[in-house]
Write a structure and sequence with these properties.
Elements: E1 9-15, E2 20-26, E3 31-39, E4 47-51, E5 60-63, H1 69-82, E6 92-99, E7 110-111, H2 114-122, H3 131-144, E8 150-154, H4 164-167, H5 173-178, H6 188-201, E9 210-216, E10 220-226, E11 229-233, H7 255-262, H8 268-277, H9 280-285, H10 290-298, H11 302-326, E12 331-335, H12 336-341, H13 343-350, H14 362-366, E13 373-374, E14 383-386, H15 391-403
Parallel strand pairs: 1-6, 6-8, 9-12, 12-14
Antiparallel strand pairs: 1-2, 2-3, 3-4, 4-5, 7-8, 9-10, 10-11, 13-14
Length: about 400
């Protein structure tokens, strides 16, 4: 049995296949005490960058081989200890883990037990790149603090409220059920956080607002949120479906895979790499950085302009489609790296949708800010907003709320 720590701090861990991102937060005021990143784990060129925000100190870096996730987390713990924020502190209440795939079983943050770990492992076939890394991070953290609650916060959880009409694919039901084939959706912590922040920006409760959230980063997804609950989302069984992304194709005729296999002689693995890592913006024009693509567009580069146009065309289709799904839309919220910072993307995505009550104010849209803000004119029937996402804070809040419920695990 583990017992929630009596403190107010939560360590958030996001373990990737060769990286660990982390933040230590004090939940009394949601302040960040430290942030950091360990990257290139398992290579000779590993790097740990740690920033002690609580002390206002300068960022520190370690460069050199870090063999595995266990060594990475031990190095993180040592850096935190230098600042008096060690993992042995009684102020640490819990450790929250981002877990990409929770399937249908996990619709809320969950204290990690042996049974929970077994289910996360059973989901590896539908998240082969992500869940194994998440599992490694959890086991390493458990070894460092076996007495402390470890909480899984699932990317898919927010989307479990989708009706079957949105979540089901139109394939044989028995085959789909046998192999867990359905739309799960991802970026759920971001969509949950941004939809609530958008309601707050409008001065309304989440249950009184319908929002289309556009999470536009290197990975990109859209969601239709009715009254605080997701009713549709663009990513599916995997993060490949939906919008045009940095290196992923998004929506594509499934028969393309058969064609490439039969006509081009490509293997399933080669097609997998093509669609996930060599498609999207990088496949269309050789760049997946929207800043570089816009620079090339401004210089008259036709390939970059076509890539941008395809990206925007797909965005418009989802905006229109989710408008139809919701029936009534109060706001559209742009978030993540591109959504928060690329004014030309926001302007182009909304252009021509005036009949839907949508418009962007050029001056408001051009303002750079790390605060949630409206970028639509006062006369617009539907608000358009740029809302910075904060997935780490969302994970920390869900983790802290769970462990502070007075439970023993």
């Amino acid at each position: 049995m583990t017992t929630a720590g009596q403190g107010t701090r939560v360590l958030v861990l996001n373990s990737g296949s060769s990286s660990v991102k982390y933040q230590l937060l004090d939940m009394r005021d949601a302040s960040r005490l430290a942030v950091g990143l360990v990257e290139r784990i398992g290579e000779e060129t590993s790097r740990l960058k740690h920033t002690p925000l609580a002390t206002g100190g300068a960022a520190r870096e370690q460069n050199g081989p870090i063999a595995d996730h266990a060594a990475a987390l031990k190095a993180v713990a040592a850096e935190l200890a230098v600042d008096g924020l060690g993992l042995d502190s009684p102020e640490l209440a819990a450790i929250g883990h981002r877990v990409v795939h929770g399937g249908l079983k996990f619709s809320a943050p969950t204290v990690i037990t042996d049974e929970v770990m077994a289910e996360i492992e059973r989901l590896v076939p539908v998240a082969p790149l992500h869940n194994p890394a998440n599992i490694t991070g959890i086991r390493t953290a458990q070894a460092l603090r076996p007495d402390l609650p470890q909480v899984a916060v699932f990317d898919t959880a927010f989307h479990t409220t989708m009706p079957e009409s949105a979540a089901r694919y139109a394939i044989d039901v028995e085959t789909a059920d046998a192999h867990r084939i359905r739309r799960y959706g991802f970026h759920g912590t971001s969509h949950a956080y941004v939809s609530r922040e958008t309601a707050k920006l409008l001065g309304k409760a989440p249950e009184d607002v319908n929002v289309i959230v556009l999470h536009l980063g290197n990975g990109a997804s859209a969601s239709a949120v009715r009254g605080g609950r997701c009713v549709d989302t663009s990513m599916g069984l995997t993060p490949l479906e939906g919008l045009v992304m940095g290196t992923r194709s998004g929506d594509i005729d499934p028969a393309v895979t058969f064609h490439l296999n039969r006509v081009a002689g490509m293997s399933v693995d080669e097609i997998d790499v093509l669609l996930n890592k060599k498609s999207g913006l990088v496949g269309l024009c050789g760049d997946n950085d929207m800043r570089e693509i816009r620079r090339r567009c401004d210089e008259g580069d036709e390939r970059a302009q076509l890539a941008f146009d395809i990206y925007i065309h797909r965005l418009k289709k989802y905006i229109g489609g989710y408008y139809a799904v919701l029936g009534k839309v109060d706001a559209i919220a742009f978030t993540a790296g591109v959504g928060e910072n690329a004014a030309p993307v926001r302007e182009a995505a909304i252009a021509g949708l005036e009949e839907l009550g949508l418009a962007v104010d050029g001056e408001l849209n051009a303002v750079r800010s790390d605060r949630p803000r409206l970028i639509s004119p006062e006369y617009a029937r539907v608000a358009v907003a740029a809302v910075p996402t904060d997935e780490e804070l969302e994970i920390a809040q869900q983790t802290y709320a769970l462990v502070r419920a007075g439970q023993q695990f």
